[in-house]
Amino acid sequence: MRRNRDRAGWPAPRAGQLTNNNITYALPSNAPGYVFQAHLTGRWEETPAARQHHDPHAAATHHALETARTVSGLYPLTEHQAAQTHINSRLGISHDLDDAPVRLLWAQVHLTVATSDSDAVVCLQRRMHDEALNEHANRQRQHQAEELHRALSTTPTMALAYWLIRQPEAADGNTIDALSQLTREITAYAPHTAWVQAAHLLQTFVQGLPTPARVNLVDSLAQIFTRYDQPELADRLRALAPQIQSANGHLPDSPPSGPRLGT
Description:
- This protein has nine helices and five strands.
- By secondary structure, the chain is an alpha+beta fold.
- Strands 1, 2, 3, 4 and 5 form a five-stranded antiparallel beta sheet that branches.
- A hairpin with a 5-residue loop joins strand 4 (about 95) and strand 5 (about 100-110).
- The protein starts with 14 loop residues before the first strand and ends in a 19-residue tail after the last helix.
């Protein structure tokens, strides 16, 4: 079609509409694989330039759709009205295209959603919500377990209180008496006391010694107990000597020999 020229020799600027009710565009949502269905309307016109665009209608349509895609990808299908309002707020003012001598005067998008897609997205949102709740509950249970472990490590008697809370029907008169005795024994050997820590150090030291050296150590400690007027403790220590002589708590294959300290 011939284009009219004005008196200065320039062709008259072209203008047109974006309306085409037979075309439906797919716009992405924030859930991969699920899209909005969009119908586009609007108006465009050319701007003066030495070289005109071959298809200004396509350039204006492309700009409108790219603007709409940028916004629609932020919304789920269940919020198509909000997505539509956001898109049209961007397209409601005129805009000169950067890469073509075309001005988009205005554009408007009408969004629709397939019912099957909307239902699928609702199920997906519920599943994601449930998974998030389960993950939060698991993290909370793990944190509580770690806190309980730390508390029981520093205060062993808390284990008894925790057990009674969980099993209140198991507490009777005999149980209370037994727990009282056990509490006294546990408290006496609480792992945070300095002497128990010293005993652990002694155990670590003994594990690295050969059998003759362990025998020497037991005999020397028994003599120290006797020197401080504790012969009964010395006898009890000597009674434990067969187990102490072996690193794993069993009797050695043959009786050890060698010099002893203090002899």
